Amino acid sequence: MLIAIFMMLLALLLPGCIDRAPAVQGNASTLEWLGWSHFRITSGQDKVILINPFIAGNPDSIVKLEDITRADVILVADGHEDEGSSDAIPLAQKTGAKLIGGGFELGSWFIEQGVPASQVIRTNPGGIHRFDGITVRIVNSVHGSGLPEPTANNTYGGPAAGFIITLEDGYTVYFAGSTAATMDMQLWGSAFKPDLAILPLNNNRDPVDVAQMVKLLRTDNQNLNKIIPHHNRVQPPAGATTIDEMEQAINDMVGKGTVTVMRIERGKAIQLTK
Fold it and tell me: What is the average per-residue pLDDT within 1-16?
C-alpha cells in the first residue's frame, strides 16, 4: 500500500519523467556536402543517409559512384537527373539501401529501372517513415519532377518533395529540394521545428525567395539557426545569385545574427549539434 502511494506521489511530482523515451546516446551526427545538392548524413548511431546523390555528370562532385560503399537510406527529391534520380539506382542496388523518391510514381520508376521493390518506399508528401530511430517526413515542393528516361508505364515522376529528417537524438534537418517558398513552410516550422535548413540557391534564384523560406520556417521555431545553400556551383557562373546575396536578403528579413548562413567545404564533415 505504501509503495502504491509513493508511486502515485512520484507521478504527480515528476510528470515529465513519465512515458518519455530516454535520449539515444552515441556520437554526434555529421553532414557532408559532396557537390551540387548531394549531401551525406552519418547519424550518431552510424546510419548513412544520402540526399540527392547526383554524381555522374556533376562537375563539382568530389566522389565517384564507386566511392560510395555504404548507405542505409537514399532520398531523391524529384525525378530530375541533377537531383540524383539516375545515380540513386546503382547506389541502391549496390548498398541495399531503402530508396525514397518524392512521389509514388518516382518510386514506381525506380522499380522499373531495376531497384528491388523491397528496397523502394513509394510515398507522397504527407508520408512519414521510420528507420531505427530516424524519422523521415515527406513534404511538398513547388517544383517539377520530369524523369530522365520516361517509360510507357511511368511518364512522370509525380510530385516533387522535400524531406524533414529527425535523427536519433532529435536533431532535425529540413532539405527543401528545389522548391520555391510556400506558406506550407510556416506549418512545418511550427510542427517539426527544424534546427538546420538546406535551401536551394540555383543560378536565377531570387534571394528574397530564400529569405521568405527562413522567415516561414522560424514560425514558432527558435531552433532554426543554421542555413546551408544547395543546388549551387562551387564557382557560380556570371550573373548567378550568390551566397552573399542570399545572406543579405535573410538578414534584411529576419534580422542580422538570427541565423548563420554556412559556407561549407565539400567533403568536410560538420557536426549536427544544437
Answer: 39
